[in-house]
Design brief:
Blueprint: H1 3-20, E1 30-35, E2 38-42, E3 56-60, H2 75-84, E4 90-94, H3 97-103, E5 126-127, H4 135-144, E6 150-153, E7 157-162, H5 165-186, H6 196-209
Parallel strand pairs: 5-6
Antiparallel strand pairs: 1-2, 1-4, 2-3, 4-7, 6-7
Helix pairs in contact: 1-5, 2-4, 3-5
C-alpha cells in the first residue's frame, strides 16, 4: 500500500471519528492533512455515510486538483493554514453546536476556565464572518491560528489545527466541550475570568509538566 493511500485511509478514519463524536452532521464539516506537494481533503458533499478513500482529494499547493471529485468548498481555508502555519499537519473544521452558538454571537471564548489555555492563550478568538470558501475567510482563519490551535469562525463554526489527526480532533472536541461549559455558565451570569497572574502561573506550570501540546 502506498503512503498516499495510507493517508487517504487515515483521513477517512479521522472524518468518521469526528462524526462519531457528534461534531459533524450531514455534510457540515471537513478534514484535511498535509502531504508532499499539497494536502489531502475530504470531498465536496462528504458525510460519514459517503466518504471513502477514493473520494479524498489531493489539492496541490497551487490550488489545482485532478479528476471529477471536487474538494470541499473550504479547501482554501485548509490550504492557507498549511501554507502559513508550519506546525499544522492536520486540520478539522466543524459546525459543532456550542461552537456555532458562540460564533453566531461573534463571541470569543474568554479565559473563564484554565483549559481555555490548552489552545495556546488566554482566550480562543472568533474571526469576523466571511462567506464560506472565500480567500477572506481563509486569511482570517489562518491569521487567528498563528498563535492558537483553534478559533471560532463568526456566524459559521470552528476550525482547529494539529501536528496529527489525533491532536486536531482533540482540539475540536475540547473546544466544543469548553464552549458548552461557557454557555451553561452564562445562564447564571457572566463567569469570572482568570487574571493575568493566573495565566502566567498556568503556562509556567503547564510547560514544566508538558501539559497538552498547545499549538
Amino acid at each position: 500500500m502506498s503512503d498516499l493511500k495510507k493517508k487517504q485511509d487515515a483521513l477517512v478514519g479521522a472524518y468518521l471519528e469526528v462524526a462519531e463524536l457528534g461534531l459533524m452532521r450531514q455534510a457540515s464539516g471537513n478534514v484535511s492533512c498535509r502531504v508532499d506537494g499539497g494536502m489531502l481533503i475530504s470531498c465536496s458533499g462528504a458525510s460519514a455515510t459517503n466518504l471513502t478513500a477514493d473520494r479524498v482529494v489531493m489539492v496541490r499547493e497551487d490550488g489545482s486538483w485532478d479528476g471529477d471529485v471536487k474538494p470541499s468548498s473550504e479547501w482554501r481555508m485548509h490550504s492557507t493554514i498549511y501554507r502559513r502555519q508550519e506546525k499544522a499537519h492536520a486540520v478539522v473544521h466543524t459546525h459543532s453546536d456550542y461552537c456555532v452558538a458562540l460564533a453566531c454571537h461573534n463571541l470569543p471564548l474568554p479565559g473563564f476556565h484554565y483549559m481555555v489555555g490548552t489552545f495556546g492563550g488566554a482566550d480562543v478568538p472568533c474571526v469576523p464572518y466571511a462567506t464560506f470558501g472565500t480567500e477572506e475567510l481563509a486569511n482570517n482563519a489562518s491569521d487567528a491560528l498563528t498563535h492558537r490551535a483553534a478559533c471560532l469562525l463568526g456566524n459559521h463554526g470552528m476550525i482547529a489545527r494539529g501536528n496529527t489527526f489525533e491532536t486536531a480532533i482533540a482540539h475540536a472536541e475540547r473546544l466544543e466541550m469548553i464552549c458548552k461549559h461557557y454557555v451553561l455558565a452564562r445562564t447564571m451570569g457572566e463567569p469570572d475570568r482568570l487574571t493575568d497572574a493566573d495565566w502566567d502561573e498556568f503556562f509556567g506550570r503547564a510547560k514544566k509538566v508538558a501539559y497538552s501540546a498547545f499549538i
